């Protein structure tokens, strides 16, 4: 049995589906009751529980051979959740712990990177066989259909700064490979990055070329309508602070990565942004 945490999120759902297609029995774990729908998408079991509850974590890791841990992004207690999952897995004698981290977690001014790095540290000291996956931010953050419909690619940071990207489906293919091949990937840390390095204007041009529709890039003010409300919660404040820091960094420095490791793991070149756009458009056609 393979445990996938935060399984109801975008990354988690993709991981569950990919592992199930590869023939693995998957236990999907999430705080949302919607996780139960993943049984219809290939999960052998769905378990509703809280990553901050030790009893829930003990139930989640029972009888599990490997854990694929995905921390809820931009959550103020993400590091604490990760520590709890590592501790429960260690106590249960889990044979392989796969951690979804982030490219360049040492960029500690970024709150989401801080949290990932804190979990990496604990995992390195856990004495468990581990694999750390460090994906670049996903191409899927760009909703191609919406961009084509609007004719505008909007982003809340500089349109001229280049950023690297990675296709989520490439990342989950690697996750399934790592789980399936087990010990061949023990104690490895893999940066997972595509080979596109594009600014917003170039992304818009790629979408326009593939769709045959004019698309322009437009910088919008942060938070672009996503306010915390009159009485923000701790999670609201943390999320907005994290996004402010992230977008400021992207606008000033961009973010880079190298595609060699991802290509080696896939046995092919990583999916390009143009290929992602083409696939997204095809999925929308009747």
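^ structure tokens above, recovered residues below v
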């Amino acid at each position: 049995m393979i445990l996938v945490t935060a399984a109801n999120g975008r990354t988690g759902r993709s991981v569950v589906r990919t592992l199930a297609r590869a023939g693995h029995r998957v236990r999907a774990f999430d705080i949302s009751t919607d996780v139960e729908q993943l049984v219809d998408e290939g999960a052998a079991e769905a378990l509703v529980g809280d990553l901050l509850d030790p009893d829930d974590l003990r139930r989640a890791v029972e009888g599990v051979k490997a854990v694929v841990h995905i921390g809820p992004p931009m959550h103020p207690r993400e590091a604490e959740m990760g520590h709890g999952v590592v501790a429960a897995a260690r106590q249960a004698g889990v044979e392989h712990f796969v951690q979804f981290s982030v490219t360049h977690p040492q960029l500690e001014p970024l709150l989401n990177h801080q949290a990932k790095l804190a979990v990496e540290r604990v995992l390195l000291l856990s004495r468990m066989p581990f694999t750390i996956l460090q994906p670049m931010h996903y191409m899927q953050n760009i909703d191609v259909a919406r961009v084509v419909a609007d004719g505008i690619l909007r982003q809340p940071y500089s349109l001229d700064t280049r950023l690297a990207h990675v296709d989520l489906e490439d990342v989950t293919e690697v996750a399934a490979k790592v789980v399936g091949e087990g010990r061949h990937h023990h104690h490895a840390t893999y940066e997972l990055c595509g080979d596109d390095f594009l600014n917003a204007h170039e992304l818009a041009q790629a979408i326009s070329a593939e769709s045959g529709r004019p698309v322009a890039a437009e910088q919008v003010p942060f938070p672009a309508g996503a306010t915390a409300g009159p009485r923000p919660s701790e999670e609201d404040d943390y999320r907005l602070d994290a996004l402010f820091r992230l977008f400021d960094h992207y606008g000033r420095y961009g973010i880079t990565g190298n595609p060699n490791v991802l290509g080696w793991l896939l046995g092919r070149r990583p999916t390009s942004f143009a290929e992602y756009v083409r696939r997204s458009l095809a999925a929308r056609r009747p």
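The radius of gyration is 19 Å.
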